[in-house]
Amino acid sequence: MPEVFTELWFIQLATVLYVIGITALVLLERRRPSAALAWLLALIFLPLFGLCLYVLLGRAGVRRRRRLRARRSINPTDVTRGLLPLETPLEELEQPLRGLVALALNSSAAPLRRADRVELLADPTGAFAAMEAAIAGATRQIHIASYIWRDDDTGRRWIDLLCERARAGVEVRLLYDEFGCLGTPRELFERVVAAGGQVLTFGAVRLRYRPLMINFRNHRKIVIVDGDLGFTGGLNVGDEYLGRGLGARPWSDLQVRITGDAVVGLQAIFLEDWLAAHSDDHAEDPAFARQLADLLARPSGHSCGPMLQIVPSGPDLPFIDAIAAQLTAAIASAQERCWIATPYFVPDEPLSLALKTAALRGCDLRLLVPLPRNNDSSLVSLAGASYYDELLAAGCRIYEYLPGMLHAKYLLVDDRVAAIGSANMDVRSFYLNYEVTAMFYDRRVTLDLAEVFTRELAKSLEVRPETRKSLSLPRRLGEGFARLLSPLL
Fold this sequence. Notes:
Organism: Nannocystis bainbridge
Strand order of the largest sheet: 1-10-19-17-16-11-13-14-20
Shape: globular
EC number: 2.7.8.-
Strand content: 15-25%
Main location: membrane
Number of helices: 19
Subcellular location: Cell membrane
Transmembrane segments: 7-28, 34-57
Distance between the termini: 47 Å
Protein backbone atom coordinates (compact mmCIF):
# COMPACT_ATOMS: atom_id res chain seq x y z
CA MET A 1 0.00 0.00 0.00
CA PRO A 2 2.72 2.59 0.78
CA GLU A 3 4.24 1.90 -2.65
CA VAL A 4 0.89 2.65 -4.29
CA PHE A 5 0.63 5.95 -2.44
CA THR A 6 4.21 6.75 -3.45
CA GLU A 7 3.41 6.11 -7.10
CA LEU A 8 0.25 8.22 -6.93
CA TRP A 9 2.16 11.01 -5.24
CA PHE A 10 4.82 10.85 -7.96
CA ILE A 11 2.21 10.93 -10.74
CA GLN A 12 0.41 13.87 -9.12
CA LEU A 13 3.67 15.78 -8.67
CA ALA A 14 4.70 15.07 -12.28
CA THR A 15 1.29 16.24 -13.49
CA VAL A 16 1.48 19.47 -11.50
CA LEU A 17 5.01 20.17 -12.73
CA TYR A 18 3.95 19.44 -16.32
CA VAL A 19 0.97 21.80 -16.10
CA ILE A 20 3.11 24.55 -14.53
CA GLY A 21 5.90 24.09 -17.05
CA ILE A 22 3.68 23.98 -20.13
CA THR A 23 1.64 26.95 -18.90
CA ALA A 24 4.80 29.00 -18.42
CA LEU A 25 6.05 28.01 -21.88
CA VAL A 26 2.84 29.07 -23.62
CA LEU A 27 2.51 32.29 -21.62
CA LEU A 28 6.10 33.33 -22.38
CA GLU A 29 5.36 33.12 -26.10
CA ARG A 30 2.98 36.08 -25.80
CA ARG A 31 0.35 34.57 -28.05
CA ARG A 32 -3.09 36.05 -28.52
CA PRO A 33 -5.23 35.10 -25.51
CA SER A 34 -7.60 32.92 -27.54
CA ALA A 35 -4.72 31.03 -29.18
CA ALA A 36 -2.87 30.65 -25.86
CA LEU A 37 -6.00 29.26 -24.18
CA ALA A 38 -6.59 26.82 -27.04
CA TRP A 39 -3.02 25.54 -26.78
CA LEU A 40 -3.22 25.19 -23.00
CA LEU A 41 -6.42 23.17 -23.23
CA ALA A 42 -4.91 20.88 -25.86
CA LEU A 43 -1.63 20.43 -23.98
CA ILE A 44 -3.23 19.79 -20.58
CA PHE A 45 -6.22 17.62 -21.48
CA LEU A 46 -4.69 15.85 -24.49
CA PRO A 47 -1.01 15.81 -23.48
CA LEU A 48 0.38 13.30 -26.01
CA PHE A 49 -1.61 14.65 -28.95
CA GLY A 50 -1.10 18.24 -27.78
CA LEU A 51 2.66 17.86 -27.42
CA CYS A 52 3.01 16.29 -30.87
CA LEU A 53 0.92 19.08 -32.36
CA TYR A 54 2.91 21.69 -30.46
CA VAL A 55 6.21 20.35 -31.79
CA LEU A 56 4.85 20.38 -35.34
CA LEU A 57 3.10 23.74 -35.13
CA GLY A 58 5.15 25.52 -32.45
CA ARG A 59 7.19 28.67 -32.77
CA ALA A 60 10.74 27.32 -32.50
CA GLY A 61 11.41 27.92 -36.18
CA VAL A 62 10.11 31.48 -35.96
CA ARG A 63 12.26 32.26 -32.93
CA ARG A 64 15.27 31.08 -34.90
CA ARG A 65 14.32 33.31 -37.84
CA ARG A 66 13.99 36.29 -35.51
CA ARG A 67 17.49 35.70 -34.16
CA LEU A 68 18.89 35.39 -37.68
CA ARG A 69 17.09 38.56 -38.77
CA ALA A 70 18.45 40.45 -35.76
CA ARG A 71 21.99 39.32 -36.56
CA ARG A 72 21.84 40.19 -40.24
CA SER A 73 23.85 43.24 -41.21
CA ILE A 74 21.42 44.10 -44.03
CA ASN A 75 17.66 43.89 -44.28
CA PRO A 76 16.48 44.87 -47.79
CA THR A 77 13.18 46.41 -46.65
CA ASP A 78 15.02 48.69 -44.20
CA VAL A 79 17.81 49.54 -46.66
CA THR A 80 15.37 50.49 -49.43
CA ARG A 81 12.97 52.39 -47.17
CA GLY A 82 14.27 55.77 -48.39
CA LEU A 83 14.49 54.72 -52.04
CA LEU A 84 12.14 56.49 -54.47
CA PRO A 85 9.67 57.78 -51.85
CA LEU A 86 6.75 59.97 -52.80
CA GLU A 87 7.82 63.60 -52.80
CA THR A 88 4.50 64.74 -51.32
CA PRO A 89 4.95 65.29 -47.55
CA LEU A 90 2.81 63.09 -45.35
CA GLU A 91 1.26 66.17 -43.74
CA GLU A 92 -0.27 67.21 -47.07
CA LEU A 93 -2.34 64.05 -47.41
CA GLU A 94 -5.93 64.24 -46.25
CA GLN A 95 -7.32 62.04 -43.52
CA PRO A 96 -7.84 59.13 -43.28
CA LEU A 97 -5.20 58.48 -45.97
CA ARG A 98 -2.54 60.16 -43.84
CA GLY A 99 -3.19 57.82 -40.93
CA LEU A 100 -3.23 54.69 -43.10
CA VAL A 101 0.02 55.66 -44.82
CA ALA A 102 1.67 56.42 -41.48
CA LEU A 103 0.46 53.10 -40.06
CA ALA A 104 2.04 51.07 -42.88
CA LEU A 105 5.21 53.13 -42.76
CA ASN A 106 5.67 52.67 -39.01
CA SER A 107 4.58 49.05 -38.75
CA SER A 108 6.30 47.58 -41.82
CA ALA A 109 8.73 50.18 -43.22
CA ALA A 110 6.50 50.49 -46.30
CA PRO A 111 7.17 53.82 -48.03
CA LEU A 112 4.53 55.57 -50.11
CA ARG A 113 5.55 55.39 -53.76
CA ARG A 114 3.94 55.89 -57.15
CA ALA A 115 3.48 53.46 -60.00
CA ASP A 116 3.47 54.20 -63.69
CA ARG A 117 0.44 52.02 -64.22
CA VAL A 118 -1.77 49.64 -62.24
CA GLU A 119 -3.86 47.01 -64.02
CA LEU A 120 -6.34 44.66 -62.36
CA LEU A 121 -6.33 41.14 -63.82
CA ALA A 122 -9.60 39.62 -62.66
CA ASP A 123 -9.66 36.76 -65.18
CA PRO A 124 -7.17 33.98 -64.26
CA THR A 125 -6.61 33.09 -67.92
CA GLY A 126 -5.71 36.67 -68.76
CA ALA A 127 -3.61 37.01 -65.61
CA PHE A 128 -1.54 33.92 -66.43
CA ALA A 129 -1.12 35.11 -70.01
CA ALA A 130 0.13 38.52 -68.79
CA MET A 131 2.61 36.98 -66.35
CA GLU A 132 3.88 34.47 -68.90
CA ALA A 133 4.33 37.21 -71.51
CA ALA A 134 6.31 39.26 -68.98
CA ILE A 135 8.54 36.28 -68.13
CA ALA A 136 9.12 35.46 -71.79
CA GLY A 137 10.10 39.08 -72.46
CA ALA A 138 12.57 39.40 -69.56
CA THR A 139 16.01 40.67 -70.54
CA ARG A 140 17.82 41.01 -67.22
CA GLN A 141 16.08 39.42 -64.26
CA ILE A 142 13.14 37.26 -63.13
CA HIS A 143 12.21 36.88 -59.45
CA ILE A 144 9.29 34.62 -58.51
CA ALA A 145 7.92 33.62 -55.11
CA SER A 146 4.99 31.19 -54.99
CA TYR A 147 3.24 29.32 -52.20
CA ILE A 148 2.01 26.50 -54.44
CA TRP A 149 3.62 25.24 -57.64
CA ARG A 150 1.98 22.20 -59.23
CA ASP A 151 3.64 19.58 -61.41
CA ASP A 152 1.02 19.91 -64.15
CA ASP A 153 0.71 21.56 -67.55
CA THR A 154 0.80 25.09 -66.12
CA GLY A 155 3.61 24.40 -63.66
CA ARG A 156 5.74 22.70 -66.30
CA ARG A 157 5.05 25.46 -68.83
CA TRP A 158 6.33 28.07 -66.38
CA ILE A 159 9.42 25.95 -65.68
CA ASP A 160 10.03 25.75 -69.44
CA LEU A 161 9.82 29.54 -69.67
CA LEU A 162 12.23 30.03 -66.80
CA CYS A 163 14.70 27.52 -68.23
CA GLU A 164 14.63 29.23 -71.61
CA ARG A 165 15.28 32.66 -70.05
CA ALA A 166 18.03 31.27 -67.80
CA ARG A 167 19.80 29.73 -70.78
CA ALA A 168 19.53 33.12 -72.52
CA GLY A 169 21.52 34.71 -69.68
CA VAL A 170 18.65 36.20 -67.67
CA GLU A 171 19.10 36.04 -63.88
CA VAL A 172 16.33 33.69 -62.73
CA ARG A 173 15.46 33.20 -59.06
CA LEU A 174 12.61 31.01 -57.91
CA LEU A 175 11.49 30.73 -54.28
CA TYR A 176 8.77 28.26 -53.30
CA ASP A 177 7.24 27.31 -49.97
CA GLU A 178 8.08 23.74 -49.00
CA PHE A 179 4.75 23.04 -47.31
CA GLY A 180 2.73 24.42 -50.21
CA CYS A 181 4.75 22.29 -52.67
CA LEU A 182 4.84 19.03 -50.71
CA GLY A 183 3.29 17.15 -53.63
CA THR A 184 5.60 18.66 -56.23
CA PRO A 185 8.75 16.67 -57.10
CA ARG A 186 12.00 18.54 -56.61
CA GLU A 187 13.15 17.34 -60.02
CA LEU A 188 10.80 19.91 -61.54
CA PHE A 189 12.66 22.80 -59.90
CA GLU A 190 16.05 21.22 -60.50
CA ARG A 191 15.49 21.80 -64.20
CA VAL A 192 15.77 25.54 -63.55
CA VAL A 193 19.06 25.04 -61.70
CA ALA A 194 20.40 22.89 -64.54
CA ALA A 195 19.54 25.70 -66.96
CA GLY A 196 21.54 28.23 -64.91
CA GLY A 197 18.86 29.64 -62.63
CA GLN A 198 18.65 29.60 -58.83
CA VAL A 199 15.98 27.88 -56.73
CA LEU A 200 15.45 27.97 -52.96
CA THR A 201 12.81 26.52 -50.63
CA PHE A 202 11.23 28.48 -47.79
CA GLY A 203 10.37 26.73 -44.54
CA ALA A 204 11.46 23.31 -43.31
CA VAL A 205 8.84 20.55 -43.43
CA ARG A 206 10.80 17.37 -43.90
CA LEU A 207 12.53 16.15 -40.74
CA ARG A 208 16.01 17.62 -40.46
CA TYR A 209 18.23 18.99 -37.74
CA ARG A 210 16.47 22.35 -37.81
CA PRO A 211 13.06 23.32 -36.34
CA LEU A 212 10.03 22.66 -38.52
CA MET A 213 8.10 25.51 -40.15
CA ILE A 214 4.84 23.71 -40.95
CA ASN A 215 2.66 26.31 -39.29
CA PHE A 216 4.47 29.38 -40.67
CA ARG A 217 4.17 29.41 -44.43
CA ASN A 218 5.35 31.83 -47.07
CA HIS A 219 1.97 32.52 -48.63
CA ARG A 220 3.20 35.40 -50.80
CA LYS A 221 2.74 35.39 -54.56
CA ILE A 222 5.22 37.68 -56.29
CA VAL A 223 6.51 37.92 -59.86
CA ILE A 224 9.06 40.62 -60.71
CA VAL A 225 10.55 41.12 -64.18
CA ASP A 226 13.54 43.37 -64.85
CA GLY A 227 12.87 45.31 -61.64
CA ASP A 228 10.19 47.50 -63.26
CA LEU A 229 7.25 45.14 -63.68
CA GLY A 230 5.61 43.31 -60.79
CA PHE A 231 2.61 41.09 -60.12
CA THR A 232 0.99 40.08 -56.84
CA GLY A 233 -2.38 38.77 -55.71
CA GLY A 234 -3.98 35.40 -55.07
CA LEU A 235 -2.75 33.21 -57.93
CA ASN A 236 -0.41 30.30 -57.35
CA VAL A 237 1.04 28.30 -60.24
CA GLY A 238 -1.07 25.35 -61.34
CA ASP A 239 -3.91 24.17 -63.56
CA GLU A 240 -6.50 24.43 -60.78
CA TYR A 241 -6.12 28.23 -60.75
CA LEU A 242 -7.27 28.20 -64.37
CA GLY A 243 -10.23 25.95 -63.59
CA ARG A 244 -8.55 22.93 -65.15
CA GLY A 245 -7.13 19.58 -64.07
CA LEU A 246 -8.42 16.93 -61.67
CA GLY A 247 -11.58 18.06 -59.88
CA ALA A 248 -11.72 21.19 -62.04
CA ARG A 249 -14.19 23.91 -61.13
CA PRO A 250 -14.61 27.55 -62.16
CA TRP A 251 -12.02 29.70 -60.41
CA SER A 252 -12.31 33.39 -59.56
CA ASP A 253 -9.14 35.20 -58.54
CA LEU A 254 -7.44 38.57 -58.77
CA GLN A 255 -3.90 39.52 -59.68
CA VAL A 256 -2.59 43.07 -59.99
CA ARG A 257 0.05 44.22 -62.50
CA ILE A 258 2.24 47.13 -61.37
CA THR A 259 4.89 49.04 -63.30
CA GLY A 260 7.26 51.79 -62.19
CA ASP A 261 8.84 52.90 -58.92
CA ALA A 262 6.43 51.02 -56.62
CA VAL A 263 7.84 47.68 -57.82
CA VAL A 264 10.83 48.41 -55.53
CA GLY A 265 8.63 47.40 -52.59
CA LEU A 266 7.93 43.96 -54.08
CA GLN A 267 11.60 43.56 -54.97
CA ALA A 268 12.73 44.34 -51.42
CA ILE A 269 10.31 41.80 -49.93
CA PHE A 270 11.46 39.12 -52.37
CA LEU A 271 15.12 39.77 -51.52
CA GLU A 272 14.25 39.63 -47.81
CA ASP A 273 12.68 36.20 -48.31
CA TRP A 274 15.55 35.05 -50.50
CA LEU A 275 18.09 36.01 -47.87
CA ALA A 276 16.04 34.30 -45.15
CA ALA A 277 15.90 31.10 -47.19
CA HIS A 278 19.68 31.20 -47.63
CA SER A 279 20.17 31.76 -43.90
CA ASP A 280 18.20 28.59 -43.25
CA ASP A 281 20.88 26.68 -45.16
CA HIS A 282 23.72 28.55 -43.41
CA ALA A 283 24.84 29.88 -46.77
CA GLU A 284 25.42 33.28 -48.30
CA ASP A 285 24.18 34.21 -51.74
CA PRO A 286 27.23 35.43 -53.69
CA ALA A 287 25.03 37.53 -55.97
CA PHE A 288 22.96 39.06 -53.20
CA ALA A 289 25.23 42.03 -52.44
CA ARG A 290 25.42 42.88 -56.13
CA GLN A 291 21.65 42.58 -56.50
CA LEU A 292 21.01 44.90 -53.56
CA ALA A 293 23.60 47.36 -54.88
CA ASP A 294 21.84 47.38 -58.26
CA LEU A 295 18.53 48.06 -56.53
CA LEU A 296 19.98 50.95 -54.53
CA ALA A 297 21.60 52.36 -57.67
CA ARG A 298 18.21 52.64 -59.35
CA PRO A 299 17.75 56.05 -61.05
CA SER A 300 15.67 58.73 -59.35
CA GLY A 301 11.95 58.14 -59.42
CA HIS A 302 9.86 59.32 -62.32
CA SER A 303 6.54 57.49 -61.85
CA CYS A 304 3.52 59.76 -61.58
CA GLY A 305 0.63 57.27 -61.47
CA PRO A 306 -1.31 55.76 -58.56
CA MET A 307 0.04 56.04 -55.01
CA LEU A 308 0.56 52.79 -53.13
CA GLN A 309 2.41 50.99 -50.38
CA ILE A 310 3.63 47.38 -50.48
CA VAL A 311 2.92 46.06 -46.98
CA PRO A 312 4.51 42.79 -45.76
CA SER A 313 3.69 40.83 -42.65
CA GLY A 314 5.19 37.73 -41.07
CA PRO A 315 5.64 36.04 -37.70
CA ASP A 316 9.32 37.00 -37.42
CA LEU A 317 8.79 40.71 -38.15
CA PRO A 318 8.70 43.29 -35.33
CA PHE A 319 4.98 43.90 -36.02
CA ILE A 320 3.69 40.50 -37.10
CA ASP A 321 0.15 41.84 -37.57
CA ALA A 322 1.00 44.75 -39.90
CA ILE A 323 -1.48 43.68 -42.59
CA ALA A 324 -4.16 42.86 -40.01
CA ALA A 325 -3.74 46.34 -38.53
CA GLN A 326 -3.79 47.95 -41.99
CA LEU A 327 -6.98 46.24 -43.13
CA THR A 328 -8.75 46.76 -39.80
CA ALA A 329 -7.83 50.45 -39.79
CA ALA A 330 -9.04 50.83 -43.38
CA ILE A 331 -12.40 49.27 -42.49
CA ALA A 332 -12.69 51.51 -39.44
CA SER A 333 -12.10 54.56 -41.66
CA ALA A 334 -14.99 53.74 -44.04
CA GLN A 335 -17.61 56.43 -44.39
CA GLU A 336 -19.86 55.22 -47.21
CA ARG A 337 -18.91 51.70 -48.21
CA CYS A 338 -16.56 48.84 -47.49
CA TRP A 339 -16.58 45.84 -49.84
CA ILE A 340 -14.50 42.75 -49.08
CA ALA A 341 -13.76 39.56 -51.02
CA THR A 342 -11.94 36.69 -49.31
CA PRO A 343 -11.96 32.90 -49.71
CA TYR A 344 -11.26 32.24 -46.03
CA PHE A 345 -13.04 34.36 -43.44
CA VAL A 346 -12.10 33.76 -39.81
CA PRO A 347 -11.90 37.22 -38.22
CA ASP A 348 -10.08 38.01 -35.01
CA GLU A 349 -11.80 40.19 -32.42
CA PRO A 350 -10.51 43.58 -33.70
CA LEU A 351 -11.56 42.81 -37.29
CA SER A 352 -14.95 41.49 -36.21
CA LEU A 353 -15.56 44.60 -34.14
CA ALA A 354 -14.44 46.91 -36.97
CA LEU A 355 -16.83 45.21 -39.40
CA LYS A 356 -19.80 45.40 -37.06
CA THR A 357 -19.03 48.98 -36.05
CA ALA A 358 -18.78 50.11 -39.68
CA ALA A 359 -22.12 48.49 -40.48
CA LEU A 360 -23.77 49.98 -37.41
CA ARG A 361 -22.48 53.40 -38.47
CA GLY A 362 -24.47 53.01 -41.68
CA CYS A 363 -21.69 52.00 -44.08
CA ASP A 364 -22.58 49.75 -46.99
CA LEU A 365 -20.56 46.78 -45.76
CA ARG A 366 -20.54 43.72 -48.00
CA LEU A 367 -18.61 40.48 -47.65
CA LEU A 368 -18.14 38.09 -50.58
CA VAL A 369 -17.02 34.51 -49.83
CA PRO A 370 -17.26 31.15 -51.63
CA LEU A 371 -20.34 28.99 -51.39
CA PRO A 372 -19.48 26.41 -48.69
CA ARG A 373 -19.62 23.43 -51.04
CA ASN A 374 -17.18 25.19 -53.41
CA ASN A 375 -14.68 26.14 -50.71
CA ASP A 376 -11.52 24.01 -50.70
CA SER A 377 -11.38 24.23 -46.88
CA SER A 378 -14.63 23.00 -45.32
CA LEU A 379 -13.43 23.58 -41.76
CA VAL A 380 -12.53 27.22 -42.43
CA SER A 381 -15.83 27.71 -44.25
CA LEU A 382 -17.73 26.40 -41.21
CA ALA A 383 -15.72 28.61 -38.86
CA GLY A 384 -16.44 31.66 -41.01
CA ALA A 385 -20.17 30.91 -41.15
CA SER A 386 -20.29 30.92 -37.35
CA TYR A 387 -19.75 34.71 -37.50
CA TYR A 388 -22.59 35.37 -39.95
CA ASP A 389 -25.41 35.84 -37.44
CA GLU A 390 -23.72 38.62 -35.48
CA LEU A 391 -22.57 40.37 -38.66
CA LEU A 392 -26.02 40.19 -40.22
CA ALA A 393 -27.57 41.54 -37.02
CA ALA A 394 -25.23 44.55 -37.24
CA GLY A 395 -26.29 45.29 -40.81
CA CYS A 396 -23.54 43.58 -42.83
CA ARG A 397 -24.55 41.98 -46.11
CA ILE A 398 -22.95 38.61 -46.89
CA TYR A 399 -22.83 36.96 -50.30
CA GLU A 400 -21.71 33.48 -51.34
CA TYR A 401 -20.13 33.06 -54.78
CA LEU A 402 -22.03 30.42 -56.77
CA PRO A 403 -20.06 29.39 -59.91
CA GLY A 404 -16.97 27.91 -58.20
CA MET A 405 -14.06 28.77 -55.93
CA LEU A 406 -13.65 32.45 -55.08
CA HIS A 407 -9.94 32.84 -54.25
CA ALA A 408 -9.48 36.61 -54.66
CA LYS A 409 -8.32 38.61 -51.64
CA TYR A 410 -9.16 42.30 -51.74
CA LEU A 411 -10.88 45.17 -49.98
CA LEU A 412 -12.09 48.61 -51.04
CA VAL A 413 -13.12 51.53 -48.88
CA ASP A 414 -15.25 54.38 -50.24
CA ASP A 415 -13.66 55.66 -53.47
CA ARG A 416 -10.12 56.17 -52.20
CA VAL A 417 -8.58 53.00 -50.70
CA ALA A 418 -8.07 49.54 -52.19
CA ALA A 419 -6.07 46.57 -50.88
CA ILE A 420 -5.05 43.61 -53.07
CA GLY A 421 -2.68 40.84 -52.10
CA SER A 422 -2.13 37.34 -50.78
CA ALA A 423 -3.64 37.80 -47.30
CA ASN A 424 -7.00 36.28 -46.45
CA MET A 425 -9.31 37.70 -43.80
CA ASP A 426 -8.39 34.99 -41.32
CA VAL A 427 -6.22 34.30 -38.30
CA ARG A 428 -3.65 32.33 -40.31
CA SER A 429 -2.92 35.14 -42.75
CA PHE A 430 -2.95 37.77 -40.01
CA TYR A 431 -0.63 36.07 -37.50
CA LEU A 432 1.03 32.94 -38.92
CA ASN A 433 1.77 33.27 -42.62
CA TYR A 434 4.21 35.48 -44.50
CA GLU A 435 1.96 37.71 -46.61
CA VAL A 436 2.08 40.78 -48.84
CA THR A 437 -0.64 43.31 -49.64
CA ALA A 438 -0.59 46.30 -51.95
CA MET A 439 -2.45 49.28 -50.46
CA PHE A 440 -3.63 51.68 -53.18
CA TYR A 441 -4.68 55.26 -52.49
CA ASP A 442 -6.17 56.07 -55.87
CA ARG A 443 -9.69 56.75 -57.05
CA ARG A 444 -9.33 55.04 -60.43
CA VAL A 445 -7.92 51.82 -58.97
CA THR A 446 -10.66 51.74 -56.32
CA LEU A 447 -13.43 52.26 -58.88
CA ASP A 448 -11.97 49.56 -61.13
CA LEU A 449 -11.94 47.20 -58.15
CA ALA A 450 -15.56 48.11 -57.39
CA GLU A 451 -16.46 47.04 -60.94
CA VAL A 452 -14.76 43.68 -60.38
CA PHE A 453 -16.64 43.22 -57.10
CA THR A 454 -19.99 44.18 -58.69
CA ARG A 455 -19.52 41.62 -61.49
CA GLU A 456 -18.79 38.86 -58.98
CA LEU A 457 -21.71 39.93 -56.78
CA ALA A 458 -24.06 39.35 -59.71
CA LYS A 459 -23.02 35.68 -59.62
CA SER A 460 -23.61 35.32 -55.89
CA LEU A 461 -26.42 34.48 -53.49
CA GLU A 462 -27.09 36.75 -50.53
CA VAL A 463 -27.20 35.11 -47.11
CA ARG A 464 -30.48 36.03 -45.40
CA PRO A 465 -31.09 36.08 -41.63
CA GLU A 466 -34.23 33.98 -42.05
CA THR A 467 -32.21 31.30 -43.86
CA ARG A 468 -29.74 31.19 -41.01
CA LYS A 469 -32.56 30.61 -38.52
CA SER A 470 -33.52 27.39 -40.25
CA LEU A 471 -30.09 25.76 -39.95
CA SER A 472 -30.09 22.22 -38.63
CA LEU A 473 -28.64 21.37 -35.23
CA PRO A 474 -25.72 19.35 -36.72
CA ARG A 475 -24.81 22.31 -38.91
CA ARG A 476 -24.83 24.70 -35.95
CA LEU A 477 -22.76 22.29 -33.88
CA GLY A 478 -20.30 21.97 -36.77
CA GLU A 479 -19.96 25.74 -37.02
CA GLY A 480 -19.46 26.03 -33.27
CA PHE A 481 -16.79 23.33 -33.22
CA ALA A 482 -14.96 24.92 -36.17
CA ARG A 483 -15.12 28.30 -34.44
CA LEU A 484 -13.60 26.77 -31.31
CA LEU A 485 -10.66 25.60 -33.41
CA SER A 486 -10.38 28.90 -35.30
CA PRO A 487 -7.43 30.22 -33.20
CA LEU A 488 -5.40 27.23 -34.44
CA LEU A 489 -6.58 27.20 -38.08
